[in-house]
Design goal:
Protein name: Transcription termination/antitermination protein NusA
Domain Transcription factor NusA first KH: 202-279
Domain NusA-like second KH: 284-346
Number of strands: 16
Distance between the termini: 80 Å
Radius of gyration: 36 Å
Number of helices: 15
Shape: elongated
Mean pLDDT: 83
Strand content: 25-35%
CATH architecture of the domain at 4-132: 2-Layer Sandwich
Subunit structure: Monomer. Binds directly to the core enzyme of the DNA-dependent RNA polymerase and to nascent RNA.
Largest sheet: 5 strands, mixed
Pfam family, one: KH_NusA_2nd
Oligomer: single chain
């Protein structure tokens, strides 16, 4: 049998499981028909037979047997005497089928065929990968960490395809080790040097949207719609939701009983605070909800300038602004307005302050509670008192108080 085993001869063939067999067979057929055209000038009277299961390839030449001296087309006809040399029982008018030895093409032609086939298979795999992930942009996938670099992480999906999670698309608190499975959303598919690069993200609002869809059946079923999500990854997020069913409380459904639904998402996002609010077309009501957890006293809205002055009680100002100004920044993104905060009893811009609870990741909760017990519920209220005064009024040790002051002072120096 003049055949060639493709699985052994062309190593890329066995790596092409994600390419459908008919496409694969067509590629192999095209490659060898090109060889036939180069050698014989035409492939009209040749059949390339590919056995996709075994990886076998046969090339069969078809010619009609004619009387000696009547051969007009050597590619389509063969003289009777020449046919009898192949098989004595042949008669004039019969079809002669003859297998072509692959080695007859020559070593150089076979090598070129291998290279062409490998290149075609590589292109097919790229196209399949681009289509697969191009159709999944915005979907969550799980992949295994294969290599951790300074600027990005290389992951492998279940089929061994390489995926990239750039540092810029990671939550600041993210820390992953090789072999760990992580979840992320498919952000985009790029082509670099003619190769597809699949970029994942854990900071995209769509990642939070998909996590909510997984945890909240009402969102998956379309009973609750996510109108807008704004995020400061790892710090805070605000999710505006709306229900098309008056019997469903969209905020309650998203949060779950005792926070059961939202807690899993918060853990996935490295303790990112998530404010879920009811969407409304009433812009003043939306502003109030967007500045959660602060409570607004009054506001002055200028629709033309897309600007609003918000007035709050002094103890609510730091809540409205939030640590590093994150809360007010997200409220502005959610409402598409510029928001200025004022004390309602002075009408002057509030001196920047930070609620002490915003330091819960650096200062232990029991220490914060002890400071709040004496009325120190913001960063500036702690800094306004001396170490000795704080030591006298609380049960905290001097070294602990000094550490707390350093932490809160450093936050203002950053600003």
């Amino acid at each position: 049998m003049a055949s060639i085993n493709l699985i052994e001869a062309f190593q890329d063939f066995k790596e092409a499981e994600n390419i459908d067999r008919p496409t694969m067979m067509k590629v192999v057929e095209d490659v060898f028909k090109t060889l036939l055209r180069k050698k014989y000038g035409s492939d009209d009277n040749f059949d390339v037979i590919v056995n996709a299961e075994k990886g076998d390839l046969e090339i069969v030449r078809r010619r009609t047997i004619v009387e000696d001296g009547n051969v007009e087309d050597p590619l389509a006809e063969i003289a009777y005497s020449d046919a009898r040399k192949i098989e004595p029982d042949y008669e004039v008018g019969e079809e002669l089928y003859e297998e072509i030895e692959i080695l007859d093409f020559g070593r150089r032609a076979i090598l070129a065929a291998k290279q062409t086939l490998a290149s075609r298979i590589s292109d097919l795999k790229k196209n399949v990968l681009v289509k697969k992930y191009g159709d999944r942009i915005g979907d969550i996938i799980s992949a295994e960490v294969y290599q951790v670099w300074k600027k990005e992480i290389l992951l492998l999906d279940e089929e061994g395809n390489e995926l990239i999670l750039p540092k810029s698309e990671q939550i600041p608190q993210d820390y992953f080790k090789k072999g760990e499975n992580i979840r992320a959303v498919v952000k985009k598919v790029e082509l670099k040097n003619n190769s597809p690069v699949i970029i994942l993200s854990r900071t995209s609002p769509s990642f939070l949207a998909k996590l909510l869809e997984i945890e909240v059946p009402e969102i998956f079923d379309g009973l609750i719609v996510i109108k807008k999500i704004v995020r400061e990854p790892g710090e805070r997020a605000k999710v505006a939701v709306e229900s098309y069913d008056d019997r469903i409380d969209p905020v309650g459904a998203c949060v779950g009983m005792k926070g059961s639904r939202i807690h899993g998402i918060v853990r996935e996002l490295k303790n990112e605070n998530i404010d879920v609010i009811n969407w409304t077309n009433n812009i003043q009501l939306l502003i109030q909800r967007a500045l959660t957890p602060a409570k607004i006293t009054s506001m002055e809205l200028d629709n033309e300038k897309q600007h609003v002055n918000v007035f709050l009680k002094p103890d609510q100002v730091s809540l409205a602004i939030g640590r590093k100004g994150v809360n007010i920044k997200l409220a502005q993104e959610l409402t598409s307005l510029t928001i200025d905060v004022f004390r309602d009893n002075e009408g002057e811009p509030e001196e920047y302050d930070i609620d002490l609870d915003e330091f819960s990741d650096e200062i232990e909760t029991w220490i914060i509670d002890e400071l709040k017990r004496i009325g120190c519920d913001t960063a500036r209220s702690v800094l306004d008192l001396t170490v000795d005064e704080l030591e006298r009024r609380t049960d905290l040790e001097k070294e602990t108080i000094e550490d707390v002051k350093k932490i809160v002072q450093a936050e203002f120096e950053k600003e």
